User: What shape does this take?
Amino acid sequence: MADVELTMTTQVPVSTQEAWAWSTSLQSVRAEMRPLLKLVFPKGMTDIGANTMLGKSLGRCQFLLFGLFPVDMSKLTFTEIVPGHRFVEQSQLLSMHAWRHERVITPAPDGRGALITDHVKFAPRFAAPVVRAMVKLLFAHRHKMLARALGAQPQEIAQNRDGRARRDRSAW
Assistant: This one.
């Protein structure tokens, strides 16, 4: 199975520093996923920060569908963190041959706030079309929730396959 790649960008009316603080708070990550998933982070982990160990598993994360049913497990691993700008998470998941999630925070081109961009690349172990649809749904939901929490309009900016931005409500 070929890798699947999805990119979503949402403009929020906050500074890049505020967008970064949101993106690296475990409480915010949980808020982005609720109520679809509950993410149980490794014990003792409080945030994704400059002191986060890179390249080694921080422990196991459990994904609970609707907060009740275990649906996946990962060995949470960050490979790159540029404080205030981006992080890259490449974790081993039970459901994936490969998983890479990059979140980038940049100033909005119109000078009004920040852009939060998620780029995910993954190779499902099974049921690729279903897994692709579920990951797409999860990240669309995450962007809807972060837009709501940070005061953005409900409209996202998504990239076409040729890299040009487009605006619509479906995002992908």
